[in-house]
Amino acid sequence: MRTTILVITIFAAILSFSCQQTGKKGTDQLQSVIDQSTIEEVTNELAKAHPEVNQARIARGVEQTASLWFPNNGDSETFASFCKNNFIADKEARHLAFEKLSRNFEILDGHFNKISLELLEPLHLDMGEITKVDQKFGSYSAGSHVKSDLYKNKIAFMVTLNFPQYTLAEKNKLGADWTRKEWAYARMGDRFTARVPAKMKMNYSETETAADMYIADYNIFAGQLFSEKGEKLFPEGMKLLSHWNIRDEIKSNYADKKNGLVKQRTLYRVMKRIVDQSIPETVINNKEPEWNPFTNEVTLAGEPKQGKAEPNTRYQHMLNLFHAVKAMDKYYPTLDTYIKRKFSGNMEISQEETEKLFVEYMSSPVLKDVGALISKRLGRNLEPFDIWYDGFKTRSSLDQDKLNEATQQWFPNAMAMENELPNILKKLGFPNDRATYLANKIAVDPARGSGHAWGASMKGEKAHLRTRIPESGMNYKGYNIAIHEFGHNVEQTISLYDVDYYTMNGVPNTGFTEALAFMFQSRDLEILGMATSNANKEHLKTLDKCWGLFEIMGVGLVDQRVWKWLYANPNATAKDLKKAVMRISKEVWNEFYAPVFGQKDETLQGIYSHMIASPLYLSAYSFGQIIEFQLEEYIADKDFSSEVQRIFEQGRLTPKQWMMEAVGEPLSVQPILNKTGKALKALN
């Protein structure tokens, strides 16, 4: 009862503000028109009419329906009549309704997903110049009005009344004893929890697309870069997308004993210029000018050229997305900030729990020992870009040119890769029929950017692996990323086609799909037939995962703290945000990385492009690596393909329940820290 009163109070306050701003009434009102006495009256009548039904289900359904019943849905009498006429008491009839709702939601989800996928093709794929028409259609969200329509025609209320939502705490407490059907019913209840106007969803879609396009074309032509000594060390025409390709080029140069360190220092300076926005705007996605990132001087055909700095465009896109999601806050009774919706809502792990887990890991003294070992292996003091040290991987001992030659020959274009998907799965141990089954549900597209995986949302449609393949064929770095994305596609396919109920399709949160993507990516040399043998291979693999997790957790923590700063400073300018990102980056570095690296005030962790176009996504990578480690430990003596199938066909349980079902233990950083300590001891 107190919860409902609180909801009504919140809606009343929002309504007052809304009316002051718009001067409108009726459909613009955000206040539920159903009072507590009506809720109690309807609940009692239904309970009396259906004594055989769980009374808590009746109360929950009526209350949630009331909280979302706005003036345009009718008055209290209409509400009472709707509840009495649409409450389903009979178990078989309720399940039939569930199946029909599931079928129709799959049709809606699937086709709107397909529309978005295809409208974005000119932006995501290498289809020539992007026109204004492409931009407009790419930012158009055909499904943005669906939920509004479903509230209007009261289909949404049929769901809230008969399949009410459970809180995360309730799911974690009760879920262990639920049947799969009960889980499926609970997930049906997650579909309608807030009423966000379609125009706001459309605005977010347009804002996100603009940020995505900005990042997709943020290329640096490495062949035009000068080192600190004024030398050109990169191949002519090499185009590196920020941040992904720049980071991966830094990683690849640990194998270059001649010029690798100089190249890394040059790219590091490029990253610093991007973060502080002192990068000359003219060198972005422009193959003509030459640039010295140390002096910041720009030349064209040997003549000095004015290099006006990029005008904080990077941070303006980030700010635009913040305002787009913040405008929706008032429509969520409990998850009233984007931070809450992203963590407690979407990830089903609170931001507070997430930060606590990250701090626990990054504060471990074992990381200083790993840093000391890396310094010893490099024969020099650590530099900030060594957060991407790649020397623990077995591929670090392989010739980069030979790796490129192998992947370019195998994958000259997207179709060649698509044709090889069954063979890749077979090399990972999938039986022939299973490999064919999965591969036939995945298409490969030539990406304009670094690439991504886009899953289907209904059976009969394919997941899409979008990957960048140059005219010369796929290089090794691109192949490594593509195998990661292929892991996503396999998860997307299993968790859609092989789950028992449509409402259970997917995984608990994006960290879980990242886990399988990392598992695939770590087997890239095995797939390529170039895996090496090393007596310390397992120890080195553990250290590599430990160091990689250390790096990405810091980035995720910066992302979280920046968003907390945004909510505390909602009127900030792009310049203010830039200063905040740099300050927070330094604070995180000084707290967790300076003790390892011996250097303070580093801003490198502000470089990740996800911060600009995919707000609060970065923490998913850390969860992905933690989950990956626990999964790998569990399946080490088991068949890879059958375990992948068993684990990922669980679908969308909560993270806690999913982990217990998958490996029999909760999410934890202790396994990787413990094994890292053992690896260090063995190697020393």
Explain this structure:
This protein is mostly helical and 684 residues long. Helix content is 59%, strand content 4%. It is built from 31 helices and eight strands. It has helices spanning 2-22, 36-49, 55-67, 76-86, 91-119, 121-124, 132-138, 146-152, 155-162, 168-174, 180-188, 198-216, 244-252, 260-276, 313-326, 338-347, 351-362, 366-378, 400-410, 414-427, 432-439, 476-497, 510-521, 524-528, 537-568, 574-597, 610-613, 619-635, 640-648, 655-663, 670-683; strands at 219-221, 239-241, 290-292, 297-300, 303-305, 442-446, 451-454, 463-467. It has a three-stranded antiparallel β-sheet, with no helix packed on it. The longest helix has 32 residues, at 537-568. The chain is globular.
Brief descriptors of the model:
684 residues; mainly alpha; three-stranded mixed beta sheet; 8 strands; 4% strand
* Radius of gyration over all CA atoms, rounded: 26 Å
Distance between the termini: 62 Å
Spans where pLDDT lies below 50 across 5 or more residues: 1-28
Overall body shape: globular
**Strands side by side in the biggest sheet:** 3-4-5
Structural class: mainly alpha
β-strand percent reads: under 5%
How many strands, what sense, and barrel or not for the largest sheet?
3 strands, antiparallel
Total strand segments: 8
Helicity, as a percent range: 55-70%
Question: Helical segment tally?
Answer: 31
Q: Mean of residue pLDDT?
A: 92
